[in-house]
Amino acid sequence: AAAPDLAGRRVVVSAGGTREAIDPVRFLGNHSSGKQGYALARTAAARGADVTLVAANVSLPDPAGVRVVPVGSAVELAEAVEAERRGADAVVMSAAVADFRPVRSVSSKIKKSGTAPEPIALVENPDILAGLVASRDAEAPGQTIVGFAAETDDVVANGRAKLERKGCDLLVVNQVGGGRAFGTEDNQAVVLGADGSATDIPTGPKDDLADRVWDLVVERLA
Ligand code: PMT
């Protein structure tokens, strides 16, 4: 059994991929299956944490002993995470969040006509992770905030720039593209710390990667 080193701790994990409605039948989305986020929730619960899992469009069974809050869009995910983060010791944002959403979601299905369809105008979604960092002192002093980054190239350089932009404590940078990370059973990452640290996590099951991330969170909470 796992060491109960998260006993007495409350953590919030986001998982899955947001969907931004274009019309009642279509959306802008991404390939996240939720497996990495569910692994984070499952392993935190096994280590004794009180876990809330905010799940965007995931079709996996609820992990045992975890409270699951289902959401659809980035705005819904933002509202759920902002409510749940109060009083939590750590928040881990492993969800793949759409950076943009259609300005308008039309209420009836867009029909195929003889002419080219109207371009879909987009507006930026809130940056949830940056918002959690900005409101931490007021809402959750001392909370550890962990982001994920999906990068296709220059993984460490792009990750370091993203860590600085978002201001989180740890950024788990996984390489995507070429069939990696999205929907797979295994994953691999380098975890960058705001203190300049870099921890390599070799390829292995998503639960193993999740456990290594919690090890780093536990170190910070100590
Ligand atoms: O679900 P799986 O199939 O197991 O795949 C796992 C995964 C590849 C989706 C996961 O490991 C992962 O990398 N998740 C983050 C993907 C992502 O959206 O990365 P990003 O570089 O676009 O965003 C960086 C961080 O900012 C993320 O923590 C994201 O949750 C957050 N973000 C992004 C946009 C936004 N508007 N608000 C945010 O909070």
From TrEMBL:
Region (Phosphopantothenate--cysteine ligase): 11-222
GO molecular function, one term: phosphopantothenoylcysteine decarboxylase activity
Manganese is among the record's keywords: no
TM region positions: none
Coiled coil stretches, renumbered: none
Catalytic activity: N-[(R)-4-phosphopantothenoyl]-L-cysteine + H(+) = (R)-4'-phosphopantetheine + CO2; (R)-4'-phosphopantothenate + L-cysteine + CTP = N-[(R)-4-phosphopantothenoyl]-L-cysteine + CMP + diphosphate + H(+)
Family label: In the N-terminal section; belongs to the HFCD (homo-oligomeric flavin containing Cys decarboxylase) superfamily.
The name this protein goes by in its record: Coenzyme A biosynthesis bifunctional protein CoaBC
Organism: Nocardiopsis codii
Gene: coaBC
Residue span relative to the full protein: 175 to 396 of 396
